[in-house]
Amino acid sequence: MLASVDSTNAEAARRAATLINPGWILAGVQTAGRGRRARVWSSPHGNFHATCSFRPDGPAARIALHSFAASLALRDALVALTDLPQAFALKWPNDVLLNGGKLAGILLESAGVGAGVSRLAIGFGVNLIGAPDPAHLDQDALRPVTLLAETGLRLSPETLLDHLAPAFAARAAQLSDGFARIRADWLTHAARLGQPIRARTATQIRHGTFETIDDSGALILRTASGPLAIPAAEVFF
Q1: 182 and 204 in one domain?
Q2: In sequence order, what DSSP letters do the residues of the chain get, joined into one string?
Q3: Are residues 46 and 116 in the same domain?
Q4: What are the tens digits of pLDDT across the range 24-81?
Q5: Residues 176, 225: one domain?
Q6: Shared domain check, 200 and 176
Q7: Is 124 in the same domain as 207?
Q8: Are residues 155 and 231 in the same domain?
Q9: Which domain holds residue 203?
Q10: What is the pLDDT of residues 214-229, one digit of tens each?
């Protein structure tokens, strides 16, 4: 475990040539943690900041599906540690919710040449004991929560990693056999499935009912004009 690092994903990139496959990097503090769209990720001491870096097989489209394997694995680990299966849900594409609030986020970053992906880094950030100030978040963002406040359980980052690493290995093995099992399990735990949501892309906001995800992992939104596949967006409840 590193006492402090700018970003575990950045450290994984720096160590790509020497990391075992897969290799995990765990940090006590991140000084420049980041989420999707280069947003700042609050990374205080006591929270979980870790990256799994490995050489993936297959085309880039299939490699991107590790996002769903990762969020499922994190849920698996948290359920095993808390014995609270009903408390944890998955928000498309890869957030983990606890009692309806945002507990964790996952960031995938890849490196490669041309169409190939030579290295995939999956960064996990989990609010074990601290959460960002809601005043600093988007107005429509889900309330941030911590594992400690919601469950009374104080977990060390090392304990969570001891459960997450084998859970992710198991989910990645499932994914190597195809997306069907991962997709079905993910939908079983999906937040707001069958309910109205908003999906914000770079150019517009779509309103509809969250119907499913397709074989590519795209969100299928049932709109007034029919089903719409959305490969990338931010979802709001």
Answers
A1: no
A2: -EEEES-HHHHHHHTTTT--SSEEEEEEEESS-B-GGG-B----TTSEEEEEEE---S-HHHHTTHHHHHHHHHHHHHHHHH--GGGEEEETTTEEEETTEEEEEEEEEEE-STT---EEEEEEEE-SS----GGGS-TTSPPB--HHHHH-----HHHHHHHHHHHHHHHHHHHHT-SHHHHHHHHHTBTTTTSEEEEE-SS-EEEEEEEEE-TT--EEEEETTEEEEESS-EEE-
A3: yes
A4: 999 999 888 776 655 666 678 899 999 999 998 888 888 999 999 999 999 999 999 9
A5: no
A6: no
A7: no
A8: no
A9: 196-236
A10: 999 999 999 999 999 9
| Two structure tokens written together for 138 | 């988007």
Total tally of structural domains belonging to the chain? 2
**Do residues 174 and 211 share a domain?**
no
Q: What is the CATH number of the domain that holds 182?
A: 3.30.930.10
User: Does the model's pTM come out above 0.90?
Assistant: yes
Q: Is residue 128 within 8 Å of 155, Cβ to Cβ?
A: yes
Residue 141 vs residues 118, 145, 210, 236: alpha-carbon distances, Å: 34, 12, 18, 7
Q: Parallel, antiparallel, or unpaired for β 196-200 and 119-126?
A: unpaired
Token pair 């941030």 in the structure block, residue: 144
Same domain, 55 and 114: yes
